[in-house]
Amino acid sequence: MPRTGTGSGRSLPRRLRHVLGDVIALGYLAVCAGLLVWAIVVTATDDSGESMAGVIPLLATAPGSLLFLALPEGGGMLLLAVVLGALINATVIGWCSRALRRGGGRGTTAS
Question: Rounded CA gap, 84 and 73, in Å?
Fold first, then answer.
């Protein structure tokens, strides 16, 4: 069976680096990082203690972050949920972006 160059012989870290190196995936990670920094700054400067800014990065990284939200409560766990959710979503975005750019592959049907 011939190799098609789709990464079938690569290790998992090399595949992840390849997928996360996509421009669209990197852009998504940059937006998520910006939202996370913004939420931390807003929450830290809020005197009332009623800031809901942490919800925005959580929703931006859903559904991946919602899987990890069930972990024990705390600011560290919220941060971990957002970071892992962003990485999961960026991996899927990068994979989809590369698959769409490749085009003409499997699954296409003639009209």
Answer: 16
pLDDT at 70: 72
- Of the two residues 107 and 98, the one the predictor is more confident about is 98
Cα–Cα distance for residue pair 64/81, rounded to 1 Å? 8
Cα separation, 68 vs 78, in Å, equals: 8
| Range from 29-33, 60-64, 77-81 that averages highest in pLDDT | 29-33
